């Protein structure tokens, strides 16, 4: 088994440039902080790509870059290298595309407050959480806190933008090639922000879910279950998209929620379990998910029918 060799778009312009032809599988990658090549992130909570291993020599050109900020799905204007390498007619023909996207958009949606600065209530279809006065019946469990109209808005947003990415793929030499997305692991809402230097803004430095759930006055005993509800909603959405071969041709989704992880301790502020901070995995967490995702990706590339992991593996 060989580790995935990772290059940057800049490496392709160097002299000499890496010889991609020597690899059995050549992949293009773009994503959020789980793919970031920032030195502080790699040191602190690893890079999911660097933990991937394959039986055949494989490489990825990672366009995620060194940015520390949250990357949103539609931020393609800030990712010109990815768009060019994916859709340009003279771009390499990739065997597949690796995407780590959607999780940060989910967090941003959860952070949307119930009220605007002028005191006006934000409509339910524009946020994921409900104000105390909007909570449903206790018999519905933690779903009482969840905005289904807001989820419908988020779902359409995600579906629209993934379709756009598939359209970009089909404009270049990689037309019809598989696009791989992963779901996310379930974080424990806790006061564990980033220790990266220079981020400044709370949106980037975190914690992320913890202040949002506090602002909505959700009972602390329900925080873990609310986090699980949102992440599982996202997993079901992504898997339903992958199952829709007409709307999302060539999309393959790996359900990361099936990988057993050591959860972080509630209330902890540092690295705990398989988590470096509230939403980022540490090296052991990245290792577990990356190895499982690698098997899924390589099976698809080799034309092997993949089987959904047993629900008994859910953590």
UniProtKB/TrEMBL annotation:
It comes from the Bacteria. SUPFAM superfamilies: SGNH hydrolase (SSF52266). This is GDSL-like lipase/acylhydrolase family protein. It comes from Roseateles oligotrophus.
